[in-house]
Amino acid sequence: MDKCNVALYGCGTVGTGVAQVLLSRGALGERIGDRVKLKYVVDARLDEVRRALQQSGPVIVTDDLDQPLADPEVNVVVELFGGMTAARTVVERALASGRDVITANKALLASYGDELFRLARAHGRAIGFEGSVGGGIPVIGAIRDGLVANRIERIYGIVNGTCNYVLTRMLERDMLYARALAEAQERGYAEADPRLDVEGLDSAHKLAVLARLAFGVNVKLEHIACEGIAHVELSDLRYAQALGYTLKLLAIGIRRGERLELRVHPSLLRKEHPVAGIGGVFNAVCIHTSHAGEVVLTGQGAGRMPTTSAVLSDIAAMALGTYPTDFAALSQFGDVPDADVVPVGDIQTRYYFRLDCADRPGVLAKVAAILGEEDISIASLRQQEPAGPGKHVVPVVFMTHHAREASFRRALDRINQLDVVRGDRTRFLRVEDI
Q1: Measured distance CA(248)–CA(285) in Å, rounded
Q2: Measured in whole angstroms, how far is the alpha carbon of residue 59 from the centre of its chain?
Q3: What are phi and psi of 105, to 5 degrees?
């Protein structure tokens, strides 16, 4: 398009970054000229937004959702409200009125992406969403464009910086989970209510978005098995480290014939793998492809300017006319089947588990007998020192060969009923051999 007039809905952390870049003469203007103009900013905090922008050019700041949509000069609507209700309303109205849409709202796309893509196609419009996964990492564009000739077999991703920061600090600084989370909140890396992050829901939203692009299916959020990091214990991080592993919260998508495994949970990775070394608030996505092999993308997964960069890349693609053509042609944005997801009980992986056992003969024989009856083979075990002087409880760490999840869970239930096992439950972690 000759002129891309933008209406920006939401001027919070990322929205302010987008607005400030569009109002300045920076790299975007140098590369694509003066095609893009920020015409409207829609936000309820009118005075605060005006102060934040310190307007260097003519832009209309309003709290009226409908005003930009009544302006025939507006070509592109950028939705950065977050949440669901208002965001969905804005996106639907924008598409129906003939505007292309850009959003960073992974929760909206995970819950309503299929119908929004259908609506966009019905009106001959496009939806850009590079900012929804990975912050400044161009993972959406890489899958959509750079790997377009590849069949994607597997995706493993650290896609939540809060969880990655907490797990990194626990191990590096010998911190308990609660202290590491509090530090993340103090530094602004975690919300006051961190449940969306630490319970794995944010990662599940992002996995749903990635799975549609990578596997060409519509993913229902409730079909993604999801576990967070709140029950991870520092002792297990240490034991796993001694075995050569690092713990990460991973979003995982794997082809299994015509079916998919889609799951989010803490996972042990070999220290040698590039994803295992990604610490702090950084993200990383590992993509296994048919022709390009293993591709690893890493960078800042959140924050004002990394996500601003992603949103601006979509704005530039809309202004240059390349994105709407891709959106209209690529199969992932059309009618796709619902994902046939492997039930979590049928997945097969290796397992780490730790028992706190009575320090007396015959304990390991009882545990091994139960595992054998459930067709689970022990790869290794390590008996640790007793928990303290005079203690009669011994931690024992097991690593299994590949086993079916349902069988492993049954075995743990039986093991937990042994009179020689102490504590409320056996701790376990899955092992991913990427």
Answers
A1: 12
A2: 34
A3: -90, 90
pLDDT at 298 > cutoff 70: yes
Rounded Cα distance, 198 and 2, in Å: 44
pLDDT, tens only, 43-69: 999 999 998 888 656 899 999 999 999
| Tokens, residue 303 | 């924050």
Assign 3-class secondary structure to the chain: CCCEEEEEECCCHHHHHHHHHHCCCCHHHHHHCCCEEEEEEECCCHHHHHHHHCCCCCCEEECCCCCHHHCCCCCEEEECCCCCHHHHHHHHHHHHCCCEEEECCHHHHHHHHHHHHHHHHHCCCCEECHHHCCCCCCHHHHHHHHCCCCCEEEEEEECCHHHHHHHHHHHHHCCCHHHHHHHHHHCCCCCCCCHHHHCCHHHHHHHHHHHHHHHCCECCHHHCEECCCCCCCHHHHHHHHHCCEEEEEEEEEEEECCEEEEEEEEEEEECCCHHHHCCCCEEEEEEEECCCCEEEEEEECCCHHHHHHHHHHHHHHHHHCHHHHHHHHCHHHCCCCECCECCHHHCEEEEEEEEEEECCCCHHHHHHHHHHHCCCCEEEEEECCCCCCCCCEEEEEEEECCEEHHHHHHHHHHHHCCCCEEEEEEEEEEECCC
Domain topology for 139-302: Dihydrodipicolinate Reductase; domain 2 (3.30.360)
Pick the CATH number of 4-135+306-333 from 1.10.510.40, 3.30.1360.120, 3.40.50.2300, 3.40.50.720: 3.40.50.720
The 10 Å Cβ neighbour count of residue 283 is 26
Looking at residue 43, what is its pLDDT? 96
pTM metric for this prediction: 0.95
Determine whether 328 is exposed, middle or buried from the number of CB atoms within 10 Å of its CB (0-12, 13-18, 19+): middle
Distance from CA of residue 163 to its chain's centroid? 10
**Domain residues of the chain, as ranges?**
4-135+306-333, 139-302, 346-431
Q: Domain 346-431, what architecture?
A: 2-Layer Sandwich (3.30)
CA dist list (Å): 271 to 127, 172, 247, 268, 434: 38, 14, 9, 9, 11
Residue-wise pLDDT for 69-89, tens only, equals: 999 999 999 999 989 999 999
The catalytic residue positions are 206
